[in-house]
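Repro:
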Amino acid sequence: MGGIVGLKTYLDLSKLPSLNSLAIDNILNKAADLTGEVPQTIIFAADVYNALTEEQKSLATSKN
């Protein structure tokens, strides 16, 4: 079974409060680099968002 590859769309993961750091890394690493294109948003549950590392925040920001 495949996973996320080249994600280029809005993604609402707010109903998944149990995502761990490895899952977040996978999502962010597979997201397409949209620099120069229409920005897209990934929404995480509050607890997941608050647990993001600075590296994860930086990676997410660099893709938009």
